[in-house]
């Protein structure tokens, strides 16, 4: 039962990660209002927390459940899946740092001043993150079918 719960929490957190990125994409606009900025900061913080949950539940499955560390660590599709996840995490640094830069203005009750180029870049990064997140199930499915062992 604990193996099923760990898998469920892992999948649920991945769905939440996709949802939060989608919300961030929808909320991110040039010249954000104070309320939009507040929401974006909160959603980005939740995104970081949920990404941590994805990582913790994934590690739990790797170490204590499913097929065990030997199977996963010797599977090229596992490495591809983790690599995609790491790439998404690295890409998310840019929007997170920029949103953290908005905090002083938001705390002062003022909408942040943001360049259109900065917003366009953040939107493009989030779109790439969403596209990469859609790729994660492919190596996971191939790995679950026994492909990729070396």
Q: Can you tell me about this structure?
A:
This protein is an all-alpha fold and 150 residues long. It has helices at 2-27, 34-64, 69-73, 76-91, 93-107, 116-135, 137-144. The protein is built from seven helices and no strands. The chain has one domain: Four Helix Bundle (Hemerythrin (Met), subunit A) (Up-down Bundle), CATH 1.20.120. The mean pLDDT is 93.
Alpha-carbon distance between the two ends: 30 Å
**Percent of residues in beta strands?**
under 5%
Major beta-sheet overview: none
Low-confidence stretches: none
Instruction: List SSEs in N-to-C order.
Output: HHHHHHH
* Tally of separate domains: 1
SS-derived structural category: mainly alpha
CATH architecture classification name: Up-down Bundle
Name the CATH class: Mainly Alpha
Mean pLDDT: 93
The Rg value, from CA coordinates, equals 18 Å
- Coarse morphology: elongated
List how many beta strands DSSP finds.
0
Task: Output the number of helix runs.
Answer: 7
Q: What percent of residues adopt helix (DSSP H or I)?
A: over 70%
Tell me the CATH topology. Four Helix Bundle (Hemerythrin (Met), subunit A)
Topology:
Elements: H1 2-27, H2 34-64, H3 69-73, H4 76-91, H5 93-107, H6 116-135, H7 137-144
Helix pairs in contact: 1-2, 1-6, 2-5, 4-6, 4-7
Note the main attributes of this structure:
mainly alpha; single chain; 150 residues; 81% helix; Four Helix Bundle (Hemerythrin (Met), subunit A)
What is this structure, in a nutshell?
The protein is mostly helical and 150 residues long. The two termini are 30 Å apart.
């Amino acid at each position: 039962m604990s193996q099923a719960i760990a898998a469920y929490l892992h999948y649920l957190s991945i769905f939440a990660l996709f949802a939060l990125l989608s919300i961030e994409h929808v909320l991110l606009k040039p010249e954000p209002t104070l309320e939009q900025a507040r929401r974006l900061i909160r959603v980005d913080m939740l995104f970081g927390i949920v990404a941590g949950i994805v990582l913790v539940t994934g590690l739990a499955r790797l170490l204590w459940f499913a097929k065990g560390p030997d199977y996963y660590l010797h599977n090229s599709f596992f490495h591809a899946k983790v690599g995609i996840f790491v790439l998404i995490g690295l890409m998310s640094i840019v929007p997170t740092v920029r949103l953290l830069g908005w905090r002083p203005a938001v705390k002062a009750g003022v909408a942040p001043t943001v360049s259109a180029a900065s917003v366009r870049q953040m939107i493009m990064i989030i779109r790439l993150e969403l596209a990469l997140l859609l790729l994660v199930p492919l190596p996971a499915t191939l790995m679950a079918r026994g492909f990729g062992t070396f």
